[in-house]
């Protein structure tokens, strides 16, 4: 289950829950653990793609004027 549904320390930054899930996914992936690559390299190879897209949508929604009424995506 994604961490932003569980109780954890409150992070005031936007999209903090999705950011934490993406970070955990990358750090626990075999690409980082077994192959010794950096999380940035694994992200470029396409690992944790769904969380990357969700994080991008959340950050992009911060710039969208319609979110004043709808709220941020992925929050």
From TrEMBL:
* Keywords carried by this UniProt record: Disulfide bond
Q: Which Pfam families match?
A: Pet191_N
Q: Which GO terms describe its biological process?
A: mitochondrial respiratory chain complex IV assembly
Provide GO CC annotations from the record: mitochondrion
Q: Which InterPro entries match?
A: Cyt_c_oxidase_assmbl_Pet191 (IPR018793)
The question of whether Oxidoreductase is a record keyword is answered with no
Q: Main role?
A: Involved in an early step of the mitochondrial complex IV assembly process.
Matching entries from PANTHER family are given as: CYTOCHROME C OXIDASE ASSEMBLY FACTOR 5 (PTHR28627)
The text of the family note is:
Belongs to the PET191 family.
Name of this protein: Cytochrome c oxidase assembly factor 5
